[in-house]
Design brief:
This protein is an alpha/beta fold. Helices cover about 35% and strands about 20% of the residues. The chain has a six-stranded mixed β-sheet. Strands 9-8-7-10-11-12 form a six-stranded parallel β-sheet, sandwiched between helices. Strand 1, helix 1 and strand 2 form a beta-alpha-beta unit. The model has no long low-confidence stretch (mean pLDDT about 95). The structure holds 2'-monophosphoadenosine-5'-diphosphate.
């Protein structure tokens, strides 16, 4: 019988997960289909119950349900528990198990560009849900130093206090991070600033950036934010949010099927869908 997978969120109409995963199901000759399900907050628990009743094989969770879904699952992987958010559920013989592949998707995408994080100083901009997944995963992966700059300092301090993995971190105001920018080998932007339609905004001035810094923005609409344009102008290497999106999907697909799909192909499908070229 054909297996059914899906993604839930609100809104969900523009999700690229269905085209990306359906292409992989076809490519690896798996009898399965992936759908986008529009689920409102108040219907979340019923949706999970319904998914169980119809033996949904697995699903992704996107905004705004990544934390709210946790009490409705049977088991949660320790890293997802620490991050406090689930983006992937596997149906393991009737038990729904929650994972977080957002942080590991980011890490795998980054490893393609930076093979070793030894002696690297990282600056994380933002302290919301996405920053939390990336911060905890990078700390879990053994990155030594990660400073966090955020508009609201309390939120960054909360992340540092609650990180279960050892990492050296300072909490900085954006202006202070701008002053000491030349310290950082790796700068990762996780706020919503610069996202379509406010494409002329950047969260930080990059004038003092190190020449050979690597700069990543998890946004992919637009494909190149003002922040990434500024970084390029200063000679930095850059990565937009497409690789992270493809890798989080690939790692979810691997949990569902045991196959790690071709992430280059997944990225090009998403790019084609967004009407762009690789950055
Ligand atoms: P997500 O789950 O996508 O990370 P979030 O949890 O709402 O979203 O976090 C959004 C991040 O973008 C936060 O770091 C937020 O800063 P605050 O903690 O100060 O709220 C940041 N952000 C969003 N809009 C911002 C703005 N206009 N100026 C500065 N920071 C902003």
């Amino acid at each position: 019988m054909k297996k059914i997978y899906g993604v839930i969120g609100d809104p969900i109409a523009h999700s690229m997960s269905p085209i990306m995963h359906n292409d992989s199901f076809q490519r690896y000759d798996i009898n399965a289909e992936f759908f986008a399900f529009h689920v409102k907050k108040e219907a979340l628990q019923d949706a999970v119950k319904g998914f169980k009743a119809i033996h949904l094989a697995g699903f992704n969770i996107t905004v705004p349900h990544k934390t709210a879904i946790m009490p409705f699952l049977d088991e949660i992987d320790p890293l997802a528990q620490a991050i406090g958010a689930v983006n992937t559920v596997v149906n393991d013989d009737g038990r729904f198990i929650g994972y977080n592949t957002d942080g590991s998707g980011f890490l795998e995408a980054l490893k393609k560009e930076i093979p070793s994080f030894d002696n690297k100083n990282m600056l994380l901009i933002g302290a919301g849900g996405a920053a939390r997944a990336i911060y905890f995963t990078m700390a879990h992966a053994g990155v030594q130093s990660i400073d966090i700059a955020n508009r609201t300092l309390d939120k960054a301090e909360y992340l540092v206090k609650n990180c279960p993995y050892p990492v050296d971190s300072a909490v900085l105001r954006i202006e202070d991070a701008e002053e000491k920018l030349s310290k950082y080998d790796l700068i990762v932007q996780t706020t919503s600033i610069g996202m379509h339609p406010e494409i002329n905004r950047s969260p930080i001035c990059l004038d003092r950036i190190k020449k050979d810094a690597f700069v990543s923005d998890i946004i992919y609409t637009p494909l190149e934010t003002k922040f990434l344009q500024d970084a390029k102008r200063h000679g930095a290497r850059t990565q937009n949010g497409i690789p992270m999106f493809a890798y989080q999907g690939a790692l979810a697909f691997e949990k569902w099927t045991g196959i790690l799909p071709d992430t280059e192909r997944m990225q090009s499908i998403v790019l084609k869908h967004l009407g762009g070229k690789s950055c």
